[in-house]
């Protein structure tokens, strides 16, 4: 992921900053408890594509 892109991306739902999890290839929004996938180096910022975080993942 491009570091400049990570600096400007925010959660599409609450506009909070996102945490990049390289090993899982996803961007995590802690307030919404959602993980947005990254496919072929492109973040998929759609709520219906996001994965709900388990209680122990936040």
From TrEMBL:
InterPro entries (UniProt xref): Trm112-like
Protein name per the record: UPF0434 protein GGD90_003165
Entry superkingdom: Bacteria
GO cellular component, one term: cytosol
Record PANTHER family: PROTEIN PREY, MITOCHONDRIAL (PTHR33505:SF4), ZGC:162634 (PTHR33505)
Signal peptide start and end residues: none
Protein family membership: Belongs to the UPF0434 family. In the C-terminal section; belongs to the UPF0434 family.
A Pfam family the protein falls into: Trm112p
């Amino acid at each position: 992921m491009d570091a400049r892109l990570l600096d400007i991306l925010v959660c599409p739902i609450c506009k909070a900053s996102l945490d990049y999890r390289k090993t899982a290839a996803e961007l995590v929004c802690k307030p919404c408890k959602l993980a947005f996938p990254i496919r072929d180096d492109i973040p998929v910022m759609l709520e219906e594509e996001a994965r709900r975080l388990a209680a122990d993942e936040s």
